[in-house]
Write a structure and sequence with these properties.
There is one protein chain. With 180 residues, the protein is α+β, with helices and mostly antiparallel strands. A hairpin with a 2-residue loop joins strand 5 and strand 6. It has one domain. The chain is globular.
């Protein structure tokens, strides 16, 4: 349960979210209509907004924001960032847990292979970290540890990639100890 002041802060943050960018510079994709690297993706009932933002991707309740620079990244990395923001939609705002869920989902569904860490090794090393994000080297170590613990589940699910609910993920062993 979110404390009253946290809920108020979240409501203010959502009201001030970067969705107010110029309508000409943003694209809104209703649930189930976003395509990343040639594959349709969906995160429950969350819409996806592509707009210039101060990060590569962000999540607000009911919305995943993607910066256009994301589309210049390798396919697996595009899917990783979308899955990371989807984890926030489903499970909350813990960054380490969102990273872990995203990388394990990628391995299990076959869109992230061990060689995809080469790009992360070259690019995450420079991340300084913040109050919520570990610095790049620690984040990489966490991601690799989570990847090692994931099992390959066989062929990917039918497209579009859709996560129905937190309960479904928890029941399948994809998530634990996180309140939605």
């Amino acid at each position: 349960m979110v404390p009253r002041y946290s809920a108020l802060f979240l409501a203010i943050a959502v009201a001030n979210a970067p969705l107010s960018t110029d309508a000409k510079s943003r694209q809104v994709f209703p649930p189930g209509t976003m395509v990343l690297a040639g594959s349709p993706v969906q995160c429950g009932n969350a819409q996806t907004v592509v707009a210039p933002i101060d990060d590569i991707a962000m999540a607000y309740p009911g919305t995943i924001l993607l910066d256009p620079d994301l589309f210049a990244m390798p396919d697996a990395i595009q899917h990783f960032w979308y899955a990371h923001e989807c984890a926030h939609q489903l499970f909350g705002y813990d960054e380490v847990d969102a990273d872990c869920w995203a990388i394990q989902t990628g391995k299990q569904w076959g869109w992230f292979a061990s060689y995809d860490f080469e790009w992360m090794d070259r690019n995450f090393i420079y991340l300084r970290g913040s109050a919520k994000h570990p610095p790049g080297p620690k984040r990489l170590a966490n991601l690799k540890g989570c990847y090692a613990k994931a099992t390959k589940a066989g062929p990917p699910p039918p497209q579009p990639m859709q996560v129905a609910s937190t309960a479904t993920c928890a029941a399948a062993g994809h998530w634990r100890d996180v309140e939605p």
